[in-house]
């Protein structure tokens, strides 16, 4: 019986040695799901690659003058700021290099201000809360400063 046990142990050692010498990784095998091909989507380089100006369309739903009377019932402070930026960019010959886009709520919701995000590849992104009438020139100076890069 002892001889039989010794023989079985020797065979088991031999099997384990062969198995361990052929299997290199000591870690358990990892699961890799089969690669699912992703269909291509057309891409393009936009003409406004210099910069993108996002203006929240939900900020300051109505534009008021100093006495809390509506200036224009058909426009909002956001759309007024967006239109002013477009006009200014066109006047300075920068329209096309920059794009002004209206977005839905950006989640900041300031009182009396409009959230604006400036995006430029060289500079990154900057987020502002702008009082539409009082600070739009300052905002535009940031855009022009980005243009230098």
How does this structure look, described?
This is (2Fe-2S) ferredoxin domain-containing protein. There is one protein chain. The protein is α+β, with helices and mostly antiparallel strands. It has helices at residues 2-22, 77-91, 136-147; strands spanning 51-56, 98-103, 114-120, 124-130. The protein is rod-shaped and about 100 Å long.
Concise overview:
By secondary structure, this protein is an alpha+beta fold.
Which helices and strands, and how do they pair?
Layout (H helix, E strand, L loop, with lengths): L1 H21 L28 E6 L20 H15 L6 E6 L10 E7 L3 E7 L5 H12 L2
Parallel strand pairs: 1-2
Antiparallel strand pairs: 1-3, 3-4
Features:
alpha+beta, four-stranded mixed β-sheet, 149 residues, 3 helices, Glutaredoxin
* Rg over CA atoms: 32 Å
Strand order of the largest sheet: 2-1-3-4
- The percentage helix is 25-40%
**Principal-axes shape call:** rod-shaped
Sheet/helix structural class:
alpha+beta
CATH class of the domain at 51-147: Alpha Beta
Mean pLDDT: 79
CATH fold-level name of the domain at 51-147: Glutaredoxin
Low-confidence stretches: 62-73
Largest sheet: 4 strands, mixed
According to DSSP, the number of beta strands is 4
Tell me the β content.
Answer: 15-25%
- Count of individual helical segments: 3
Order of helices and strands: HEHEEEH
Rounded to the nearest angstrom, the distance between the terminal CA atoms is 87 Å
Question: What's the architecture of the domain at 51-147, going by CATH?
Answer: 3-Layer(aba) Sandwich
């Amino acid at each position: 019986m002892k001889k039989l046990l010794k023989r079985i142990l020797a065979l088991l050692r031999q099997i384990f040695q062969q198995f361990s010498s052929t299997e290199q990784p000591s870690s358990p095998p990892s699961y890799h799901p089969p690669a699912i091909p992703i269909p291509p989507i057309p891409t393009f380089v936009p003409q406004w690659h210099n910069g993108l100006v996002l203006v929240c369309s939900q900020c300051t739903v109505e534009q008021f003058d100093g006495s809390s009377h509506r200036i224009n019932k058909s426009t909002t402070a956001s759309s007024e700021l967006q239109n002013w930026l477009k006009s200014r960019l066109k006047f300075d010959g920068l329209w096309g290099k920059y794009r002004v886009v209206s977005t839905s709520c950006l989640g900041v919701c300031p009182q009396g201000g409009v959230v604006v995000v400036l995006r430029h590849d060289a500079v990154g992104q900057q987020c502002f809360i702008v009082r539409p009438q009082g600070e739009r020139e300052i905002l535009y100076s940031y855009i022009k400063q980005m243009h230098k890069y």
